[in-house]
Amino acid sequence: MDFFSIITLLGGLAFFLYGMSMLSGGLERMAGGKLETGLKKLTTNRFMGLLLGMGITAAIQSSSAVTVMLVGLVNSGIMELAGSVGIIMGSNVGTTITAWMLSLVGIESDNVFIKLLKPSSFSPILALIGVVMTMMAKSNKKKDVGYILIGFAVLMYGMEFMSDAVEPLKDMPEFTSILTAFTNPFLGILTGMVLTAIIQSSSASVGILQALSMTGGITYGMALPIIMGQNIGTCVTSLISSIGVSKNAKRVAVVHVSFNLIGTIIFTALYCVAHYMIELPILAEAITPVNIAIIHSIFNISTTIILLPFSKVLVTIANTVIKETEEEPEKHKVPEGDHDLEELLELV
What we know:
- The chain has helices spanning 3-31, 34-40, 46-60, 63-75, 81-94, 96-102, 112-115, 119-136, 140-166, 173-179, 185-199, 202-213, 220-233, 236-241, 247-278, 289-307, 311-321, 339-347.
- With 348 residues, it is mainly alpha-helical.
- Helix 6 packs antiparallel against helix 16 (289-307), helix 15 crosses helix 16 (289-307) and helix 15 crosses helix 17 (311-321).
- The chain contains 18 helices and no strands.
- The termini are far apart.
- Helix content is 74%, strand content 0%.
């Protein structure tokens, strides 16, 4: 892997992030105020909130955007904290759709119909349609559709660039030796957490992991902890959005962190049992982009199923971490016998 491969990798990452931004931005504009309206409704029922969070996140391809909106709605008093828990869980499930889209990049087959599923086959057509729509369309809604198509095409090209850039790594022994460090699950969790926190997108960090998996050097044992760490790192956006808001809004970020942290602790324990006690052979096998998407979905869906009945516990944790402290204004103390001053203060 030479200097130009590094440039291609960075350029691919730039295309990936920009495409993600265009895609989610276009979808948000198309939805308009319906996003906020949808989030306000049906939040009294946690199951309906779960479905709502899944649907909106799958549509706009950003769990971070949904969480930030929740912080704003709770801060304004429009939504209760308890109503946001189901939506947060649903957003974690909805965000797995991105990994499934990105897994299409790894499709290899001589069959014409299967080849059509590969993004490099249909992305140029989508990009062309998108450019024509943004240039020719008069209505903003049609322009937004064009931006969505362009964003998707740029996103997929970015993924292709990253995959091509890291392909030479599979023949480098230095790269293999670096990867052996990730056999430590806690280091893998830390890596996934830091990477996602830096780029503030779990979808992007999962995409990078899928691109690296195409080298054949990433095993199940390496990928699992990184995926778990990515779910913690994605909470950074909600933590940033909670700066300077009400205590109740800050609790939304705490619920988001608690949900992902508890899920990671549970599955880290299961991973350690499978790795060190049972010694499952599959953990040493190379993982594919599709398998990463499957594991990402299993982790998020399982965490949601486990913690959904304990929604109130998450609210209690948030209330414990962010305690309510109502400070009453200090009363004026009047010396005994100074009745004139006391009467004056009462008049004021």
